[in-house]
Specification:
heterodimer; A: mainly alpha; MetI-like fold; 14 helices; B: 435 residues; alpha/beta; D-Maltodextrin-Binding Protein, domain 2; 17 helices; 10 strands; transmembrane (chain A); transmembrane helix (chain A); Mannitol ABC transporter permease (chain A); transport (chain A)
Chain lengths: 277, 435
């Protein structure tokens, strides 16, 4: 018969084991991608899959020779940062108004905003393509910044709204009593308190922008193409390409994976905030 | 002004003028070995044409098709040179979306380009794209396995013979499969192979009045053979295998026979990626009741959209990349076996035929391919493994899904054919055929 202490220990060991199993399962595709990037094309296609092989850097050399990785990476960085900053400029005032001055339509508006995420992007490809053409924004970073902002805005508003809602109104009222304007209320009081929430929203937005492929493939060609377009260019209908594709994917994922690793605490906090009350 | 300053100022002026005069040509192309080689060798073009700046956009085939279709249909002018296939060249050319390829340089020698390829890239007798390379379909087989089993592959095998060989060479305990054929659904995937197979049985997509013929005996024989052979002697999961999957299986020694694009010849004989490089034989694509339309014809070609911003510079580049001069450059820099195949008679020199053992079969297949007259019975359409009408992409893919389902055993052959007949009839009626 196990004592209560022993039962708890077994229980926590079991949970730890399950967590590890899930973590390994989630990490496996990334591990396999990195491993494949060091294989030759024939090893990459081998069946059964090979864990032990003669590693090669040829795929990375091929990419270095064929594509300007830095140009694509620079586009990814500017588009992700630009869209996140623009998104914050809209999301913070929107979330402020909904959290501190709600009306009877606030809940409906929030749900409606989220519902726009349910629209398949391909459904609006032609109108958006024509608009971009009309404004001379095809193959421009501005077009992607605007579109990514629109795509991510509902999530950004929701996340920041959830944070703001947990901040006592009294703090803002006290600031108002001291003569603060609305802008001062937001900038001097609200933002410093909700630094954590804003940071996790920024992180999520950066990751979503970095990974987006549909619009970047359809609206860019040579000047504004980000890393997702570079990855797509390594897929081939005739000829083996898995090892090269894995190498270019590793290069494309590396910055954001490292960034996510460093800031995982903020990210987890942001995603789980308000989940348990 | 001091002489040095004057020199500096004039050099600066000259530089800025040349920078201003440089015309940018944006080229949309597909990721395959020949195209990437062209991108690499374009440095030579830039040496002789410093006034033209080349911008490369390399895309995956399906993405490329989608991008180019959107670009050309909306007249966006994002690209100056498009890499397209025969299907697009004739359809888009006919609609006036492509610049006619007229007034080519005197030394281009258009007559050197195979007539079948030229015809496939033309609409109403006008050429709309310059062929970069062309391919046919051929049969690859393992000479070592044939020898061990005491079998001989005829020069022009029938599908029945292929089926018999496949039965004898299948040993599933050793993961050795008698035959590998495309099974992945799609108009350019399984339907390319199945259509040439059906052509061999005397079948056709449509009769002269554009009525689909899937309810005829020829289609039933062809599809029954395909499904039966794939199920009994094909690898597991054959219904999801396309070109690359079969290439990987063949290169790893798991397929005894493979019928597919001639472009695979250079891959299966490349020791760096094939375990069976020294044991591959090449022969013509199988026939059955007829040999008409049994080998397909496809070409990647360079075209200039009417919306292009730098048309003249685009034409100069397209002519260079498809010229004899470019072929000679590839032979010099990368070896004769890497010259883009299938477009020019002059490519097939003795040196090339020696370096590329599959070249002779490819050449003969390309010579007899006739997209305007692809089947035993007369047809109202152009195209061997496809039907060059705008509706074909959708219809071909839907029918491809049904045939793929027949391979997995989800539906019997009869049901797949009945459904194919119903879908095709409905779509063609909707599109207003017969026109």
């Amino acid at each position: 018969m196990l004592t209560l202490k022993q039962t708890r220990r077994v229980h926590s060991a079991l949970i730890g084991l399950i967590a590890w199993a899930i973590a390994l399962l989630l990490f496996f595709p990334i591990f396999w991608m990195v491993l494949t990037s060091f294989k030759t094309e024939i090893d990459a296609f081998a069946s059964p899959p090979q864990f032990i092989f003669h590693p090669t850097l040829d795929n990375y050399l091929h990419i270095q020779e064929r594509s300007g990785y830095l140009r694509f990476a620079w586009n990814s960085i500017t588009i992700a940062l630009g869209s996140t900053v623009l998104g914050l400029l809209f999301a913070i005032p929107a979330a402020y108004s909904m959290a501190f001055h709600p009306t009877h339509r606030t809940k409906g508006t929030l749900l409606w905003m989220l519902s726009t995420k349910m629209l398949p992007p391909v459904g609006v490809l032609v109108p958006i393509y024509l608009l971009a053409k009309q404004f001379g924004l095809l193959d421009s970073r501005i077009a992607l910044i605007v579109i990514y902002t629109l795509i991510n805005l509902p999530i950004m508003v929701w996340m920041i709204y959830t944070y703001f809602k947990d901040i006592p109104r009294d703090i803002l009222e006290a600031a108002r009593m001291d003569g603060a304007s609305t802008l001062q209320e937001i900038v001097r009081v609200l933002l410093p308190i909700s630094k954590g929430g804003i940071a996790s929203t920024v992180l999520l937005s950066l990751i979503l922008c970095w990974n987006e492929a549909f619009w970047s493939l359809n609206l860019t060609s040579s000047q504004a193409a980000p890393l997702t377009a570079l990855i797509a260019s390594y897929s081939s209908p005739e000829g083996l390409f898995w090892a090269k594709l894995s190498a270019v994917s590793t290069l494309a994922c590396a910055p954001i994976v490292i960034f996510g690793w460093i800031s995982q605490k903020q990210l987890v906090r942001g995603l789980s905030f308000g989940a348990v009350k | 002004m001091k002489p040095t300053k004057l020199l500096f100022a004039s050099a600066l002026l000259a530089l800025s003028t040349s920078a201003l005069a440089a015309e940018t040509v944006t080229i949309a192309t597909v990721n395959n070995a020949d195209m990437i080689r062209m991108q690499r060798l374009s440095a030579e073009f830039q040496k002789t044409h410093p006034d033209i700046k080349l911008n490369w956009v390399v895309l995956e085939e399906n993405v490329l098709r989608q991008r180019l279709t959107t670009d050309i249909a909306t007249g966006s002018g994002q690209f100056d040179v498009l890499t397209i296939g025969m299907y697009e060249a004739s359809l888009w050319g006919d609609r006036g979306w492509l610049e006619p390829m007229k007034d080519l340089p005197a030394d281009y020698d258009l007559d050197d380009v195979f007539p079948s390829v030229r015809e496939g890239l033309s609409a109403k007798g006008q050429l709309y794209a310059l062929p970069f390379y062309a391919e046919s379909s051929i049969t690859y087989y393992r000479t070592d396995l044939f020898k061990q089993a005491g079998l001989t592959m005829p020069e022009h095998p029938t599908w029945d013979q292929i089926g018999e060989f496949a039965a004898k060479l299948t040993d599933k305990s050793k993961e050795q499969y008698g035959i590998c054929l495309r099974g992945k659904a799609g108009w350019g995937e399984n339907m390319a192979l199945v259509t040439t197979l059906a052509n061999g049985y005397g079948a056709r997509w449509f009769d002269e009045q554009w009525q689909p013929e899937f309810d005829g005996p020829e289609w039933k024989q062809a599809l029954s053979f395909y499904v039966d052979t794939m199920t009994k002697y094909g690898p597991p999961g054959a219904s999801s295998n396309g070109f690359n999957e079969n290439l990987a299986l063949f290169n790893s020694g798991k397929c005894a026979i493979w019928v597919d694009a001639s472009v695979a010849g250079s891959f299966v004989t490349d020791e760096s990626q094939s375990k069976v490089a020294d044991d591959v034989g090449f022969t013509f694509a199988p026939k059955q009741a007829t040999d008409k339309g049994t080998a397909w014809l496809y070409s990647w070609a360079l075209a200039i959209p009417t919306s292009a911003k730098s048309k003249e510079a685009a034409k100069t580049f397209s002519a260079w990349a498809t010229s004899k001069e470019y072929a000679a450059l590839v032979a010099e820099k990368e070896g004769v076996s890497n010259v883009p195949p299938g477009t020019r008679q002059s490519t097939y020199t003795d040196a090339y035929l020696k370096a590329a053992p599959f070249a002779k079969v490819t050449l003969e297949s390309l010579k007899v391919a006739d997209p305007a007259n692809p089947t035993e019975k007369p047809v109202p359409y152009v195209g061997i493994q496809l039907v060059t009408i705008p509706e074909f992409q959708a219809i071909g893919t839907q029918v491809g899904k049904l045939f793929s389902a027949a391979v997995t055993g989800q539906m019997p052959v009869d049901q797949a054919l009945t459904s194919a007949q119903a879908i095709t009839t409905r779509e063609m009626k909707r599109a207003g055929y017969p026109k």
